Amino acid sequence: MSTHDGATFEYTRPFQSARPRKNRKNKKTGSGAQIAPAVALDRTRQELITDVWIQECKHLIRESLHLLSVTSPEVLCLGLGSPAAYRDPRAQLVFLLEVSDDLSLDRSNISVYDPVFTEEDERLLDDIRNAAYALPNPSIAYMPHCDLQLYENILRENWTSNRLPKLLLIANRFSEYVDNVPSQKLSAAFPCVSRIAPHLTSQPLPPCPSHPTAFNNIAIQYIRLSDLPPSEDIFWELPPVPPKSGSEESTNNAER
Which of 42, 83, 169, 210 allows an S-S link to 221, with CB 3.0 to 4.6 Å? Predict the structure, then answer.
């Protein structure tokens, strides 16, 4: 669920709003005559669909869903940024729509949220918004370059042996967090990410020639039922969610 206030979105509990990311390497639409968002989106689509890269990505996603025995998944997209204003979020949105069309998914089953959406973004995305955070049905969670806390939140919300094997993540490589965040901090502050990372099958997206910064460090990740620890394992016993502090930190990128 989400609450709408002017031009922003706020994630309701148990999700927390991902703060605007200062180190996003995006370029705004040129400073001359402003291009209509729909026109800019179509131009980006033309750039991507003529590239063999998008076909390779579609194949990897279809293959991963097949291995999970998932058909017709729902789609949740978080942390996209402003596709009306920036090049990278626009490419990420095109990717989402192209993959969804390739899988013949109904766009009414695609949920797209970001706390920095503008009114133009809302109009651009109006036809594909449908709120969902707990994911009881087979789902793709498309979360390019999100805060680590947001990954933790979605995993915690779906931390069951029934839901996790039906979840396909297209997100930052979790192994990067394991490699770059001190293990004690990661296990204490982000136990779900810390625990699931070693069990994930991870397939990095190939480099995108036309939009390299939009998809760097992004991987298709999932866990099969056979790879999950048994129900009595301590893996499933999560610590309580720590209270939020006034100066709450989030580890924002895993070496993007």
Answer: 169
